[in-house]
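Question: Hello, beginner here. Any chance you could explain the protein record under this note? Any guidance would be welcome.
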Amino acid sequence: MGVIIIDGSTVRAFVNDEAQFKTSVDAQFLSLDVNNDGVLSRSEMRKAFESMRLLETHFGVDTAVPPEELTRIYDSVFRSFDEDQNGTVDPEEFRSEMKKIMLAVADGLGSSPIQMAVEDDDKSFLKKAADLEAAKISGGS
C-alpha cells in the first residue's frame, strides 16, 4: 500500500491528458480482456467488478449482499459500459465510461486535497493521476 495526496484537479488533469489517460485505460482494458478477442464480455467485466469488492464491504467490513442483487447491479453497470447495447464492451466504450467515472470521482473529491491509501500495483487510476502530477511538478522545478 502507498499513500497519495490527491484532489479533483489532479484527477481532471489526468483525464484531460489524452495520451496518458488513453494509455492507462487501454492497458486496463487489455488486462481485463482475458480471451484477447478485443472486447469485454459480461463475465470479464463481472470478474473485474468482483475483484474490486466495491459492493461487498462497508468501511472494510464484509457485508452480505444477496447473489441476485449483485447480478442485478453488475448487469446494470455492464449496460452503462455497453453503449451500443451489442452485448460486449469495446475499447472506445470502455474508455468513454471510465472517463465519465473518473470525472465523477474528481467532482466528488472537490478542491481540498486528501490523503488516500492505494495499492502499489500501478493499476490504480488515482495513483497514476497523482504520479502524473508529481512528474509535472518535479519536471517544472
Notes: The mean pLDDT is 89. Residues 30 and 36 are 8 Å apart (CA to CA). Strands lie at 2-6, 57-58, 61-62, 114-118. The longest strand covers residues 2-6.
